[in-house]
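Input/output pair, single chain:
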Amino acid sequence: MSAVARGLVSGADIVFGGARHLALAAPLIRGEAKAWPSPFSRGVEAVLAARGRNVCVLASGDPFFYGVGSVLASHISPDETLVVPAPSSFSLAAARLNWALPDIALVSLHGRALERIRPHLHQGARVLALTSDSEGPEALARLLAETGFGESRLTVLEALGGAKERIRSTTAAGFDFTDIAELNVVGVEVAAAPDARIIAYAPGFADDLFEHDGQITKREIRAVTLSSLAPLRGQVLWDIGAGSGSVAIEWMLAHPSLRAIAFEARADRAARIRRNAAAFGVPELEVVEGPAPEALAGLATPDAVFIGGGASEPGVLDAAIAALKPGGRLVANAVTLETEAELIARQASLGGTLTRIAISRADSIGGKTGWRAAMPVTQWVWVKP
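Output:
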């Protein structure tokens, strides 16, 4: 710690921090030491309750990089705060590996699902992952080996900046390290096998990447649908009649700030959506079981709504339109004449655009090759005034 930081700790009336932090700083603390309670939200309340006193909060590295600083900043204004940052664990790891931070993916798996690393697994990519504990590196190695990235080089960097710092490297498939420190970062140099599960950057993933029972918005239609939904930073999507969850999953993969709620009446399909979300690295996808429109009540107001099935069911379109934020987009796809008639009627009364999407694929016909047409899709896109 710098002289300034040490002086701030010594001069504080109250010092908040984790038990480990408070033990490390104990020789400097002159005031009251308070460990973070569980749940952590009560600790934020305690900090706010001490407003007016000289309060110090201890944090590892850079408190605004996956740290407590960003949490407190949502409650305390900058003019009440003095921040003294130190190098983050990612900065220390990059320095040990000679990796340029702008060129690598930085992923926090601390208290988060390991699947969050999946979208970053591309041949030749470099990833720095902060794990939760001593078992995190082995679990990460197992996930990589099981999904076609077993030859990826893993470097486990333990207790960075401390007296017990240690750095070891191996492959994901050959991982056998033991006695790993609780505090660790894993550097991954991605090597993908020919059959590795790589999540593309563009929308319209191959249908067979999803687990489904045929109830899925097909690849080409899905790409057009995502374009029509036009996701913007921080927006929330309702995917009604989600089936396999493909549209909601691709929506969330477009940007980390995007959220989605998938509505599915059937329990087996809802479970399938959850498995697909984990396999694509977006386990935060919220899945609501139950029929629309009843299941739509009381949830986060959507910026966009997609109805891939059931738009002709009584009350579904009306509930979606009512819930949608002003300026929000509604996209509904129809393959049946009944649903198409409903969308044509809505376009006539409310406006918006109607598009017919017809896809044909080359297929074998009597020993030769010809075009086999898929069922055409009518798409209604409407922006709420």
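Residues 115 and 281 are 5 Å apart (CA to CA). Residues 337-350 form the longest helix (14 residues).
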